Amino acid sequence: MIYQSPTIQVELLEDNIAKLCFNAQGSVNKFDRETLASLDAALDSIKQNTKVKALMLTSAKSTFIVGADITEFLSLFKQDDATLLTWVEQANAVFNKLEDLPFPTISAVNGFALGGGFETILATDLRVVDTNTRIGLPETKLGIIPGFGGTVRLPRIIGADNALEWITSGKDQRPADALKVGAIDAVVAPEDLEASAIQMLKEALDGSIDWQARRTLKQSPLMLPKLEALMCFSTAKGMVFSVAGKHYPAPMAAVNVVEQAAGLGRDDALKVEAQAFIKLAKTEVAQALIGIFLNDQYVKAKAKKAGKLAHDVNQAAVLGAGIMGGGIAYQSASKGTPIVMKDIAQPALDLGLNEAAKILTVQVARGRSTPEKMAKVLNHITPSLDYAAIKNSDIVVEAVVEHPKVKATVLAEVEQYVSEDAIIASNTSTISINLLAKSLKKPERFCGMHFFNPVHKMPLVEIIRGERSSEETIATVVAYASKMGKTPIVVNDCPGFFVNRVLFPYFAGFSGLLAEGADFAAVDKVMEKQFGWPMGPAYLLDVVGLDTGHHAQAVMAEGFPDRMGKNGKDAIDIMFENKRLGQKNAKGFYAYSVDRRGKPKKDIDPVSYELLSAEFGELKAFESDDIIARCMIPMIIETVRCLEEGIIASPAEGDMGLVYGIGFPPFRGGVFRYLDTMGVANFVALADKYAHLGGLYQVTDAMRELAANNGSYYQA
Ligand SMILES: NC(=O)c1ccc[n+]([C@@H]2O[C@H](COP(=O)([O-])OP(=O)(O)OC[C@H]3O[C@@H](n4cnc5c(N)ncnc54)[C@H](O)[C@@H]3O)[C@@H](O)[C@H]2O)c1
Fold first, then answer.
1. Are residues 550 and 439 in the same domain?
2. Residue 404 sits in a domain of what CATH number?
3. Ligand 1 proximity of 323 Cβ (cutoff 6 Å)
4. CA of 585 to the centre of ligand 1 (A)
5. In a domain, 298, yes or no
6. Distance 477 CA to ligand 1 centre (A)
7. What pLDDT is stored for residue 223 in this prediction?
8. Same structural domain for residues 447 and 543?
9. Distance (Å, rounded) from C-alpha 509 to C-alpha 566?
10. What distances in angstroms separate CA 169 from CA 228, 441, 702, one per listed residue?
11. Which residues form the 3-hydroxyacyl-CoA dehydrogenase C-terminal domain (predicted)?
12. Would you say residue 713 lies in a domain?
């Protein structure tokens, strides 16, 4: 053994080839500070060993290196610039040491080699991967750029335009695509990996592979003629701006770094990368995106833990084959749990199956599925008009019309057909889970399972714990949601549960602005372009449906009369009363049609302005900051109330609910991250300026206290 630590072992193989094996104690290899220090020490031992003639990097895990240890990032990035620069420089010195070894080097890669893992293999002269490998640089998705030489070595290996595409998209790459552009030298079967790598090293040693030339290329300026460089970088900037937009600066920074460093040798190019890395690491966007990544891990780990208590779900059923029931059936079947879809009307069943077939047809057309898989998924959905079909179901999801009496009857009926330990969940969006539980003989087997529309696209499922729901019930529904590929968050029962409870105060803020003469299209523009929502409030109401919005708003007003009760008509009432239901009947705040190419189109409709001005008078202009404050303050305070009341268990789950459930701008990280970023005291001062607008604008005592103590919602 040449070297050994808890994360890395180095041994000498035949022919004096050293094998450096990443073998961390956890389930995967990560580039944490310990591994980096260990790699440094291992390379020193290799250099000192006079026998070594070549080096092969390998992994003893099912993946090579998943990347840097992101759990270290937030605290690391809070350090001052000089400390951060020292960290980056030290890391780069290790990668340079690897690259500068006086003999040929190769990486034999299995599984994932992402971020720092990919940057490691870029530092070796050769790369061979197995057929299951995925490589790539996902850093820009976290609001930063590669910081261990990724922006320097990759463009010099695969060309600037390919490298910019890889870096700015942050996507994982498949072996065949990586081979095509020259990012790797060979793809082999997993069982041949090490033997192939050793064979390539031998070819390097006997001179049939010119490893020195490859190394020199990586260390030299990028060979790009002036005109070509101009084309490449200006095209990349245009693309990046249209895809990432102004709220996500990292992809553009990556293009700039590659451009600025194009004429430089490795060491100077690394300095350019390091400066840009440090600048981005300090941005609020990076903190928010890293926060989302960590929250996502936290929520998934919690779901996994819950899985231990869960009952097996081998057969499911959904009641109601409407928009939601059809979507739930498709999602369950496509992720491998067969499902019975029960309705009272044959046409509804036909429609539900058609919906599933439509989604699958699009996937086949886009090459994401095959006709065989499509047939298999459809075969996993059993339509039925008869309750007898649900009798072997381990879980039944009720998704019939939103009517308390109908749901109560249906739930009581279900209980007569299923086994004693089957779990029953309701997809209701507004009816109290505690109320619905009263229709069941065994309320402990019941909870809410609130999907979002369209089911196959929306990542969140809100799982609502009623007073009587058992832990096994919650765990089983959590595990089923995870198996369906969704992110579950568990919340306690209250009107609107979590997501709708905080969404309707935002709509109330919007309606308040309209009642004072604001132009809904102007509000949408500010909330989309400046705040960063995927849709402004008027557009979102049109998508949700004004009938649904009108009904849910009444439920919220009844549940929280002090804050959400209304005097007089608001914009939602006006749209609803005038049968402007939104996209579903092609007119809401906006008018909807299809253009000549058959693409859906959204237009300003003078009729909605006439209806609104008849009630609220002439249009009036509002400042952007005012629009944002009036819409967002109610949502933010209500979200905090949900935490204080224990409706959500943690800021992490609240923020994930908002990002995954309603598209809260990821670069802001969610309400709690947003509050921490702006400072709770600053928020309280802002909200106080609007307190005269009513209960939705009044901060809680706990918020005031947190502000006074200069506290935050997240600890890191
Ligand atoms: N549409 C959404 O955006 C959305 C989002 C989340 C939750 N939800 C909730 O999901 C549920 C269903 O909503 P939807 O939009 O799919 O409604 P929908 O009107 O499209 O479908 C309801 C289906 O239930 C069927 N049905 C009625 N009575 C039944 C019975 N006794 N047994 C079996 N089937 C019966 C109807 O025939 C219809 O096919 C509602 O509780 C709704 O609040 C809807």
1. no
2. 3.40.50.720
3. yes
4. 18
5. no
6. 19
7. 82
8. no
9. 12
10. 21, 52, 41
11. 496-592
12. no
pLDDT in the model for residue 716: 66
Which ligand 1 atom sits nearest the alpha carbon of residue 351?
Answer: 39
The answer to whether the annotation marks 402 as part of a ligand binding site is yes
10-residue block means of pLDDT along the chain (716 residues)?
A: 96 97 94 94 97 98 93 92 96 98 98 96 98 97 97 97 97 97 98 98 97 96 89 94 93 97 97 98 97 96 93 97 95 97 96 91 92 94 97 98 96 96 97 97 98 96 98 97 97 97 98 98 98 98 96 96 94 98 96 92 96 97 98 98 98 98 97 98 98 98 98 90
- Map residue 712 onto helix, strand or coil: coil
* DSSP track, 561-604: HHHH--SS--HHHHHHHTT--BGGGTBSSEEEEE-TTS-EEEEE
Q: What is the CATH number of the domain that holds 19?
A: 3.90.226.10
- Pocket lining: 400 vs ligand 1, CB cutoff 6 Å: yes
* 3-class SS of residue 464: strand
Regarding the beta carbon of 344 and ligand 1, being less than 6 Å apart is answered yes
* Domain identity same for 510 and 463: no
Distance from the alpha carbon of residue 691 to the mean position of ligand 1, in angstroms? 39
Contacts of 268 (CB under 8 A, 6+ apart): 261
CB of 386 closer than 6 A to ligand 1?
A: no
Which pLDDT value is given to residue 659?
Answer: 98
Q: Residue 296 domain-assigned?
A: no
Confidence (pLDDT) at 660: 97
197 and 227 in a single domain? The answer is: yes
Q: Are residues 21 and 78 in the same domain?
A: yes
- For atom 39 of ligand 1, the residue with the nearest CA is 322
Which residues are catalytically annotated? 450
- For ligand 1, the distance from its centroid to the CA atom of residue 682, given in whole angstroms, is 43
Mutate to test the pocket of ligand 1, among 318, 319, 323, 542 (most ligand atoms within 8 A of CB): 323
Q: Is 480 one of the annotated binding-site residues?
A: no
Both 277 and 318 in one domain: the answer is no
Cα distances from 318 to residues 95, 301, 385, in angstroms, run: 54, 27, 12
Q: Quick one: tokens of 425?
A: 């969940």
| Residues of the domain holding 105 | 3-282
Give yes or no for residue 537 CB within 6 A of ligand 1. no
